[in-house]
Automatic annotation (TrEMBL):
<feature type="transmembrane region" description="Helical">
    <location>
        <begin position="359"/>
        <end position="379"/>
    </location>
</feature>
<dbReference type="GO" id="GO:0016757">
    <property type="term" value="F:glycosyltransferase activity"/>
</dbReference>
<feature type="region of interest" description="Disordered">
    <location>
        <begin position="1"/>
        <end position="26"/>
    </location>
</feature>
<keyword id="KW-0328">Glycosyltransferase</keyword>
<feature type="transmembrane region" description="Helical">
    <location>
        <begin position="454"/>
        <end position="470"/>
    </location>
</feature>
<feature type="transmembrane region" description="Helical">
    <location>
        <begin position="279"/>
        <end position="304"/>
    </location>
</feature>
<dbReference type="Pfam" id="PF26314">
    <property type="entry name" value="MptA_B_family"/>
</dbReference>
<keyword id="KW-0472">Membrane</keyword>
<feature type="transmembrane region" description="Helical">
    <location>
        <begin position="257"/>
        <end position="272"/>
    </location>
</feature>
<protein>
    <submittedName>
        <fullName>Alpha-1,6-mannosyltransferase</fullName>
    </submittedName>
</protein>
<feature type="transmembrane region" description="Helical">
    <location>
        <begin position="477"/>
        <end position="495"/>
    </location>
</feature>
<dbReference type="GO" id="GO:0016020">
    <property type="term" value="C:membrane"/>
</dbReference>
<keyword id="KW-0808">Transferase</keyword>
<dbReference type="InterPro" id="IPR049829">
    <property type="entry name" value="MptA/B-like"/>
</dbReference>
<feature type="transmembrane region" description="Helical">
    <location>
        <begin position="112"/>
        <end position="131"/>
    </location>
</feature>
<feature type="transmembrane region" description="Helical">
    <location>
        <begin position="391"/>
        <end position="408"/>
    </location>
</feature>
<feature type="transmembrane region" description="Helical">
    <location>
        <begin position="234"/>
        <end position="251"/>
    </location>
</feature>
Length: 514
């Protein structure tokens, strides 16, 4: 995670220099970080190969099911695959941290970061799902819509065709309605119409479609940086090359990636005073993943700022009326196009993820602490404690969103900052909290200027948020010894951004024996 270097100076020279000085003081001619990119590519290739036995594997695997390599899916073979997978993850993180040090030292620019991200993502395009099984739910819900079963009223278990698609949906989501926007269900329906019962093809095609969102984000990010005052290499390193993007959103894959594309381009349009387009794009993002709706009220303030007149209230009214018209028209048209009717069942379906209960969601964790303390004295059920804390958190979230929205009333680039904080507040306070939800606001925050210690914190959080789930997609949050290791690994990764080999482990390994 933090110690070797590319041959720009030679490993020994850089190790010696970084023992004496901060890496930000290093100023050298730019060299292409071939070894760092290669390290991450080897790591992602290991992730892809190991996922065949340790990732989100199929119930009936047509490739490995009964072949000579089927042993990798069971017993000691699966343990070996899991170890190999975590080794690959470590190499990806190590390469990402090294690349971050080069970016901070201004030894590399934007192009190497983009090349690195592309190389690290490429093997994962054909990988089994990593750290999640959500993509199987996407295909199951698309199959429902394709075969005339309302995904907002029924679970995939009720589908009587495409057995491979249905049986691979996680048991938690077999009988629950879809929590996604109708436009994404139309996308999933189109994918299943092409891939049918072939789950491997379904996962790969889903990834390729979601890459549209990645392309939109990559197109918007340089322009967002120019408006928001950040540095492009750092923004690309944080938002595009990070494990959250490479492993969660692409390796997952998750439909958040497609929503983020529309959100990023929509915010850029607002900054460039194309406000009608901005509202339209973010509304489309909402029809993919409803969370994008959080950004819409902030776009109204940005529109109001660019209207003439001294009265904030009058400018707000002039901005909110066309915004509502655009939103309402696209909302109705998108829902009708996707569902064949004005089906609002997806709003109620958004409650389905609240079935997930774990302490990664802040109020749930607080409720579980109170339950544990109370249960030491008297036996009580845990659900009332969690439910009460979740209600309190919903009220707190409402207050936070209103406060941030009001702070954004003067428009401008600061509004984007408050918007990003609002998008980060939602997964923190509203159940459920899933690791990849934090990318909603993080992509926008990446375009601002960063301090080094905050970048180090971002590294630690990114590593932590990938590792809190097992590669199979099951949560690891209550495996306390495992979580202790995750916490240590995250701290070490964070410290490694600021100083290579912070504990001197590699230096001790290289030290010649007497």
């Amino acid at each position: 995670m933090a110690t070797t270097t590319d041959p720009a100076r030679g490993a020994e020279a850089l190790d010696a220099s970084t023992d004496r000085t901060d890496v930000s003081d290093v100023r050298e001619p730019s060299r292409f970080p071939y070894r760092t990119i290669a390290m991450g590519t080897v790591g992602s290739t290991l992730l892809m190969l190991a996922a065949l036995g340790a990732g989100g594997i199929l119930i009936r695997d047509p490739v490995l099911g009964h072949g000579p390599l089927s042993w990798i899916r069971y017993g000691h073979g699966q343990i070996l695959a899991t170890a190999l997978l975590y080794l690959g993850f470590g190499l990806v993180v190590w390469a990402w941290v090294r690349l971050g040090r080069y970016v901070l030292a201004e030894r590399v620019g934007s192009r190497p970061v983009m090349v690195a991200a592309a190389c690290w993502m490429a093997p994962l395009l054909i990988s089994p799902p990593l750290f999640t099984r959500d993509v199987f739910s996407y295909l199951g819900q698309g199959a429902q819509l394709l075969h005339g079963l309302d995904p907002y009223a029924h679970g995939p278990a009720e589908l009587e065709v495409l057995p491979d698609v249905v049986q691979n949906v996680h048991s938690l989501w077999q009988t629950t309605p879809a929590p996604y926007g109708p436009l994404f269900l139309l996308v999933a329906k189109s994918i299943v119409a092409v891939t049918g019962n072939n789950m491997i093809a379904g996962v790969i095609v889903t990834r390729l479609v979601l890459l549209i969102g990645l392309g939109m984000t990559m197109w918007a990010l340089p322009r967002l940086v120019r408006h928001l005052g950040g540095k492009l290499p750092i923004a690309l390193w944080l938002a595009i090359a990070s494990p959250m993007m490479v492993i969660h959103l692409v390796g997952g894959p998750h439909n958040d990636l497609l929503m983020l594309g529309f959100l990023s381009v929509g915010v850029l349009a607002a900054l460039e005073r194309r406000h009608a387009l901005a509202v339209a794009l973010v509304t489309v993002g909402m029809l993919i993943k409803p969370t994008a709706a959080v950004a819409l009220p902030f776009l109204v303030w940005m529109w109001a700022r660019h209207l003439p007149g001294p009265s904030l209230w009058r400018r707000f009214v002039k901005a909110v009326l066309p915004s509502l018209g655009i939103f309402g028209s696209l909302f109705a048209a998108g829902t009708w196009l996707s569902m064949g009717s004005f089906n609002l069942g997806w709003i109620e379906g958004m409650q389905a993820p609240s079935l997930i209960t774990n302490w990664l969601n802040f109020p749930t964790g607080i409720g579980e602490i109170f339950y544990t303390l109370t249960n030491l004295v008297v036996g009580v059920p845990s659900s009332p404690f969690v439910t009460v804390m979740r209600v309190v958190a919903w009220l707190a979230l409402l207050a936070v969103l209103v406060r941030l929205w009001w702070l954004a009333r003067h428009g401008g680039t600061k509004t984007v900052y408050w918007m990003a904080l609002a998008l980060l507040a939602v997964p923190l306070l509203a159940p459920p909290t899933l690791p990849w939800y934090f990318t909603w606001g993080f992509v926008l925050v990446a375009a601002f200027a960063w301090q080094r210690r905050h970048l180090a914190a971002a590294v630690g959080v990114s590593v932590f948020l990938v590792l809190v789930y097992y590669p199979t997609g099951e949560q690891a949050l209550y495996d306390w010894w495992f979580m202790a290791g995750v916490f240590v690994a995250s701290l070490y990764a964070a410290a490694s951004l600021l100083r290579p080999d912070p504990l001197g482990l590699v230096a001790a390994w290289r030290k010649p024996r007497a």
